[in-house]
Amino acid sequence: MNLDQPSPAPNSNPVLWELVIADMRERDRIGRNRYGTPLQPHNGRDALKDLMDELLDAVVYIRQFQEEMKCLGADLHMLHARLAASPFLDADATAEIVSLLASILRRNPALGAGLCSHHTQE
């Protein structure tokens, strides 16, 4: 099984390493403000426990994202059905609207927060 991928294609999007480094600097600032000291070895904490806690949190956030995307998919399917029933739109226009909305919401998940009302408790 060949797992090679093509080389990345240059584009006009932000450089990810620069974004990650900026995120790391911000997390360091928050940690120093919260704990009054930078993170250093031999600080009295169990690094493996901290890592395990952070990894478990990360897995929960991934699962949250998956559930939200599943909900979003159901809402987009319902929207597609409603638009398809409209006498004002043809099938191509309906598909294009739903596809565009899906693309926008995938890039900006927070925009879809209120869309899954049938999955939330009030």
Write up this protein.
This protein has 122 residues and is mostly helical. It has a domain of 69 residues. Helix 2 runs antiparallel to helix 3. The relative contact order is 0.07.
Topology as a string of helices (H) and strands (E):
HHH
Q: How would a textbook summarize the main sheet?
A: none
Q: From the alpha-carbon coordinates, what is the Rg to the nearest angstrom?
A: 22 Å
In what range is the share of β-strand residues?
A: under 5%
In DSSP terms (H or I, runs of 4 or more residues), the helix count works out at 3
Quaternary structure of the protein: single chain
Distance between the termini: 49 Å
Q: How many strands?
A: 0
Are there runs of 5+ residues with pLDDT below 50, and where? none
What is the approximate shape?
A: elongated
Structural class by helix and strand composition: mainly alpha
Helix fraction bin: 55-70%
List the helices and strands and how they pair.
Layout lengths: L15 H20 L11 H38 L6 H17 L15
Give a quick set of tags describing it.
122 residues, mainly alpha, elongated
Structure summarized in a few sentences:
By secondary structure, the protein is mainly alpha-helical. It has helices at 16-35, 47-84, 91-107. It has a domain at 47-115.
